[in-house]
Specification:
With 433 residues, the protein is of the alpha/beta class. The protein is built from 13 helices and 19 strands. α2 packs parallel to α3, α6 runs parallel beside α7 and α7 crosses α9. It is globular and about 65 Å long. Bound molecules: zinc ion (ZN). Zinc ion (ZN) binds next to loops. The site of zinc ion has 3 residues, from loops.
Length: 433
Amino acid sequence: MYDIGIINGKVYIDGKYNKVNIYIEDETISLISKDLLEAKTIYDCKNDLVIPGIIDPHTHFELDLKTTSSKDDFYTGSISAIYGGVTTIIDFIDPVDNALDLEANLNKRINQAKKSLVDFKFHACLKNPKGNIEEIVKKMKDLNLSTVKIFTTYSDSLRRTYDKEIKELLTYSKTNNFLVTAHIEDDEQIKIPNTFVPSDINVSRPSSSETDEAIKIAKMVQETNGNLYMVHLSSGNTIKKLVNDFPKIINKNFKIESCPHYFLFNNSKYKKQNNYLYLMAPPLRSKKEQNTLKKHIDYIDTIGTDHCPFNSDEKNQKLLKDIPFGIGGVEHSFDVMYSIFKEAIIDKMTLNVARTHNLYPKKGIIKEGSDADIFIYKLKKKKITEDHSQANYTVYQNTNVLGEVITTLVRGKFVLKDKVLFNNVGKYINEVK
Ligand SMILES: [Zn+2]
């Protein structure tokens, strides 16, 4: 007898809904069948949607900024995730410039994440690694890390990795089969003088700073034939230019992630009094760019939230330089993106993420033998009114959406069942062997 039967649902497999039942044994999907079979627990979906658990490849739980830290730790952040149908997150280790610190920081993060209710994995992260690339690459291999994040900006906080090292990393990424994950903004175009206030954000971080740097990096990818993943693409101009000028590499060895907030909002928010609540890097762009981004959705490989919330009082500062950048979103990404793009968004939040970040076929798909990471989505027009993040506000409050997550299973365990939360122990998911 099976442990769990998920019956009478519309199950998302291979890009369409199927009227099949899912039978789970222990942590995995054991059988997908049209037959009605016996199981210890039967969950009747009553024709709701059954979708693979969302994988959020970009969260910042327990991010230490010295003066403050992001408001969700791995416990509260993962609760918020569960309410959004998210069953796996990929977070970051603190940036390092040498191999020794890489291992120490990874262990520190794994330790912090032990209280997570969802499964988790980490991107390695660098700050100006200079001559240490080779030993870092070696260490990544030892630690089974398949991605490494770099910043092309933040030279003021010494986190910038320079072109020579980026090129070196890209060259290694091909031979050693890893992914260079990049925050792409031209450091020289970014300025935050002491006089800038929140409404100056688009002057401080212009959209050209992203577009120009992305072109430069794309050329490097072409030259080295390396593997790159651009995080949080914000600008319609950037995606348009990349698609036009680099068709041979875009969505192949130059993958692109964007975030829900760039699709839902534009920089008219910065004209309002509460503009500080919408500050993140890169910032929201013009309405025109927002529309261009939406039109290019087919060229966005994955959706990540960049979940990094702060309280409204921390963000409510007069000067731009004093404001912690980042917003929450892990709980609302599917609601928001599904409401804009319907079924076209599902693979970008499940299958594509699993494939890109070395989690396939364990994660990202409803398939016999895969982890039983599943959520049930009830279609009904509503406004977002709930938020389980520890931050005291969400930019998504009152957003119109088409449904809600009512049940979430992580590796065969109901962690949310008909909107009732149960505790769970998330697992450190390293590479798929
Ligand atoms: Zn981020």
